């Protein structure tokens, strides 16, 4: 029974690799998750070893159901979507399948008379040592780079795209696994077997690196696009303020002449003409095109931009923003969330008569939480699928709302959308880091 128990203990390094990228995705913290997994191992691994030993079963017949149980418990510990956990789990299983064949090759060189299904203390310790060494080498990249992907990439379709590659690697390694090691020493089979193993290992590493580089490249490009958009809005706001300052400077320069004119009209007793002149002068005074909604420059520029769009389209807009200049939420993500909400609100209002057009937006930080609440008028017609609102402008999903939800999940928050009558409601909650923990 001891060799069987040691053989099942090879899943422990795999569990470590599965848990490391999820360091900020645990439902109740990493300590409780670690205790839960350890307790699970104490119960299930001896039980699986006993069943395998008592009924003289092939270890794979017990290992596969055991992995399914472990995955269910793994997902239970996490608050992330199943796409992330399944992608990580299958990727680690693919690696372990490759390492299992590598162990077979080492063991075949030591004793060609046995086979891959032979349960022995030596083979069990060898498999455990290989898996542990691999977990030790990959622990840092899984924790740092894998954790970064888990925290920032929230598009489930992209995570599901990794599954076929992992499944193909698992199936290929299961099929090339030798039942009898003696067959490896016929002609060049052993050399081909080693070549296949290292090819699969290199392919697995390259796929992980390429996936990370491509995803981060796409995300960086998206963030750059949002930054450019914010810079354009800030530039527009700056130009508007410059025009106001120049206009005000000219008005101040002409102020003395206007005062003299009004003084002469007063002394002449031409009060009606004086009143008309004062009205004309008041109307000619420049009015500022920008307002200070909040201390955050990027968000303030965004709000002024949509306030201008609302004014152009006769939409009654109300912004009540109490958001400090510095947050643990990046300016790009904050403007992405509010910009998409306002863009949808302005677009939806255009379907209504001018008298019915309305939008309001409130933002508040309280107890390390950022609350964003918006309401806008719309025509009351919606398209929904599986509880999600679909775009009324084209046949696809509502990309703007999906982007808001994705950005909210990045900060372990949530975004909810609803409607009542001809009012559409957007509610967003983001969890903020305490001021002492914010990264400048």
How are the SSEs ordered, and which strands pair?
Layout: H1 2-8, H2 11-19, H3 30-54, H4 59-77, H5 82-110, H6 121-152, H7 156-160, H8 163-175, H9 189-253, H10 255-268, H11 271-284, H12 297-312, E1 316-322, H13 331-349, E2 358-366, E3 369-377, E4 384-385, E5 388-389, H14 399-410, E6 414-420, E7 423-431
Parallel strand pairs: 1-2
Antiparallel strand pairs: 2-3, 3-7, 4-5, 6-7
Helix pairs in contact: 1-3, 1-6, 2-6, 3-4, 5-6, 5-8, 5-9, 8-9, 9-12, 9-13, 10-11, 12-13, 13-14
- Counting structural domains, the number is 3
Number of strands: 7
Distance between the termini: 55 Å
Fraction of residues in helices?
55-70%
Largest sheet: 5 strands, mixed
Average predicted confidence as pLDDT: 85
Strand content: 5-15%
Strand order of the largest sheet: 1-2-3-7-6
Enumerate how many helices there are, as a single number. 14
Order of helices and strands: HHHHHHHHHHHHEHEEEEHEE
Radius of gyration: 32 Å
Shape summary? elongated
Specify the structural class: alpha+beta
Low-confidence stretches: 436-440
């Amino acid at each position: 029974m001891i060799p069987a128990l040691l053989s099942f203990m090879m899943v422990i390094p795999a569990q470590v690799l599965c848990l490391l990228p999820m360091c900020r995705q645990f439902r109740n913290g990493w300590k409780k998750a670690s205790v839960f997994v350890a307790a699970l191992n104490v119960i299930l691994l001896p039980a699986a070893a006993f069943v395998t030993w008592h009924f003289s079963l092939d270890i794979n017949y017990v290992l596969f159901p055991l992995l399914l149980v472990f995955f269910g418990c793994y997902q239970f510990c996490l608050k992330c979507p199943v796409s992330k956990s399944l992608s990580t789990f299958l990727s680690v299983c693919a690696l372990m399948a490759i390492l299992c064949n590598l162990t077979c090759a080492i063991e075949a060189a030591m004793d060609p008379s046995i086979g891959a299904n032979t349960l022995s203390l030596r083979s069990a310790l060898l498999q455990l040592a290989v898996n542990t060494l691999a977990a030790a080498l990959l622990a840092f990249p899984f924790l740092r780079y894998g954790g970064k992907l888990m925290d920032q990439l929230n598009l489930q379709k992209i995570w599901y795209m990794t599954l076929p590659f992992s499944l193909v690697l698992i199936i290929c390694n299961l099929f090339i696994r030798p039942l009898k090691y003696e067959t490896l020493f016929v002609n060049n089979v052993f050399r081909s077997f080693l070549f296949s193993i290292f090819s699969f290992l290199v392919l697995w590493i390259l796929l992980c690196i390429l996936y990370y580089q491509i995803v981060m490249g796409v995300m960086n490009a998206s963030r750059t696009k949002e930054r450019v958009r914010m810079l354009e809005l800030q530039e527009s706001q700056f130009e508007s303020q410059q025009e106001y300052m120049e206009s005000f400077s000219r008005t101040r320069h002409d102020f003395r002449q206007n005062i003299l004119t009004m003084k002469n009209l007063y002394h002449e007793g031409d009060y009606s003409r004086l009143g008309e002149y004062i009205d004309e002068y008041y109307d000619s005074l420049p009015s500022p095109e920008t307002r200070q909604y909040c201390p955050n420059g990027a968000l303030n520029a965004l709000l002024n931009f949509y306030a201008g769009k609302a004014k152009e389209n006769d939409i009654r807009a109300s912004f009540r923003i109490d958001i400090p200049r510095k947050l643990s939420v990046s300016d790009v993500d904050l403007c992405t969330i509010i910009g998409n909400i306002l863009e949808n609100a302005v677009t939806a209002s255009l379907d209504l008569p001018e008298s019915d057009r309305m939008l309001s937006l409130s933002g508040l930080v309280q107890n390390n939480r950022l609350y964003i609440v918006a309401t806008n008028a719309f025509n009351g017609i919606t398209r929904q699928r599986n509880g999600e609102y679909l775009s009324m402008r084209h046949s696809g999903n509502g990309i703007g709302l999906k982007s808001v939800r994705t950005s909210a999940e990045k900060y372990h928050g949530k975004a909810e959308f609803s409607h009542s009558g001809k009012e559409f409601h957007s509610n967003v909650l983001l969890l903020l880091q305490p001021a002492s923990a914010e990264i400048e």
